[in-house]
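Notes from hallway chat w/ T.B., transcribed later so I don't forget. T.B. wanted the structure written out for a chain they're using in a teaching module, and asked if we could keep both sequence and C-alpha cells in one place. Agreed to drop them here.
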Amino acid sequence: MGKKYILWDFDNTLAYRNGMWGQVIYDLLREFGYKDVTLNDIKQYLNYGFPWHSPNTPHTEFFKGTPWWDHMTLHFENILREIGVKENLSYKVASQIKVRYLDVTQWQLYDDTIPCLENTKNKGYHNIIVSNHVPELTLLVDELGISRFFEGIYSSADIGFEKPNIQAYKKVMSELRDVCEATMIGDSYDADILGAVNAGINAILVRKENSHNYKKYCENLMDIFEFI
C-alpha cells in the first residue's frame, strides 16, 4: 500500500511573523532614526523584486549566480534608498535584515498547528513542507519545535523554483517514495492551490478569505480532514 503525503505551505499556514519583511525594515529604520517612515511607505516597495514575484523565472536566471541573501540585501538596499535612507546607511540597515527576519522569537505557530500535525501523524500521513522561503527554512522549522513532524522540508531557495511553477512541485514529488495520495495545503490560491492542481496534486485552501469560492476551503487546519 502506498503512502499518503501532505505538502504544507509554511508562512501564514503553519506559522506567521507579524508584519513580515515590512515590519523588519520598519523596526530597523526607527532604530536608525527614520521615525517618519510608515509601514505603508515601506509596503509599496515589497510587491516586486522577491523571487516569488517572478515564479516563471528559475533561480539560475533570477539570481544569476549570486547567493540568495547577497541578492536580496542589494534589493533591500535599493528599497531603502528609494525610501530616503542616506546612501552611507542603506547597506548597514539592509545587511541587518537577515538576522532580524530569522529571529525565531518573532515567529509564532498558529494554535491549531501542532494539534493538526499530531493528528496527521496519528492518521498515517507523511508531512512535507513546500514553501517559497529563505534558505534557512529548515533551521526556522527546527527552532519552532515542529521539525519532528516532517519527513522533508523544501524551500524554494533550495529547489530553484517558486510555487506555482510546476517545476517546484515536480522536484518535490520526484523525491517522494511510494506515493498513493498527495495533498497540498496552503493559504495562497495562486501558489498553493492553482500550482498544485496544475501539477496533478489535490489542494486545500486554508485561513485566508476564500475570495475565489474554492470548494476545498477550511478556515482552520483541523477542518482539513473533511477533504483528505
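Follow-up for T.B.: Residues 68-83 form the longest helix (16 residues). Might be a good example for the class.
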